[in-house]
Amino acid sequence: MSKRRQTLRRGVRALLLLTAVLFGAADASAQSPSPSPSPTPQASPTPSLEKRFFKNVLRDQRAIWTSPFHLSRSDAKWAVPLGLSAAALLATDRETDEFGSNRTRASVSRDVSLAGSTYGTAGVAAAFYLAGRATGNGRARETGLLGGEALIDGGIVFSVLKNVSQRQRPGHDEGQGEFFEGGHSFPSGHATGAWALATVVANEYRHRRLVQVGAYGLAAAVSVSRFTGRNHFLGDVLVGSAIGYGVGRYVYRTHHDPSLDAGDGQTTQHTRSRLFPFIAPRYSRGARTYGMTLAWDF
User: Fold this and answer.
1) Residue 286: inside a domain, yes or no?
2) Position 273 in a domain
3) What average pLDDT score do residues 284-298 get?
């Protein structure tokens, strides 16, 4: 019993440290001023974003790690539920870990989790960037750049937290999940990367519902697979997912080029016309007939 209490105390200390960083990452966009729009429109703003890539990463880190000192009472509406959920999962991780003990499920989970690996997420970001450059699509190019930036930011955050918490993975020491024992379970890096990239993609293509559902759905699948594959506890996955979402949201809101949204109305109409028919009523006074016209734009 004393060992269990000692473990819980260690877990609480780790949770307090992580919560500060987690809340800061998710709220950094509200604390950091957005770049003021240039009065003179630029023909190609993306190259300047490329040149500032590494400087932006450094600025992101400063904003993320210092933002816990700027939290306000209004943040309690999301910070309290998230903190309570993380604390509850960390306290019950040993019991919930038994659900993931299935060889077939673990094998499938390992395959799914590859989408959240460094190679998988970096490959998606690179594909967006290269496709954007090849086709002259500014949104795709920015998606690749901001996606890569979010992955680096999230990677730095979860690497620091892993080295500080040093939590053992579920398969070690009968799944005790001890903190400060040389492990690398807390938080989930795959979940962080998947949600960081998915949040950037979903925000860039927020007028395309299928893209949003696909991005967030894949990130959720990766997160769940890290638990069912017995790579992480549920608490690790929740915290990693929240960090990824917060970092991705911050990167997009801070560095997104608003001029790319100028044609969103036309883009949305064109996209919807490919998925759904254009519906218009028809009426012939001479024939006294009523009807409806359905038209698809291919």
Assistant:
1) no
2) no
3) 56
Q: Which one is predicted more confidently, 8 or 49?
A: 49
Count Cβ atoms within 10 A of the Cβ of residue 143 and give its class: 0-12 exposed, 13-18 middle, 19 or more buried: buried
* Number of domains forming the structure of the chain: 1
Q: Name every residue whose Cβ is closer than 8 Å to that of residue 207 and which is 6 or more positions away in sequence.
A: 264, 267, 268, 271
Give residue-wise pLDDT tens across range 189-237: 999 999 999 999 999 999 999 999 999 999 999 999 999 888 889 999 9
Alpha helix segments (H runs only) across the chain? 2-31, 46-51, 53-66, 76-91, 93-96, 103-113, 118-135, 138-165, 189-204, 209-228, 234-255, 264-275
- The structure tokens listed for 145 are 């750049």
Residue 142 domain-assigned (yes or no): yes
> Residue 26 pLDDT > 60, yes or no?
no
Domain CATH for 200 = 1.20.144
268 is a domain residue: no
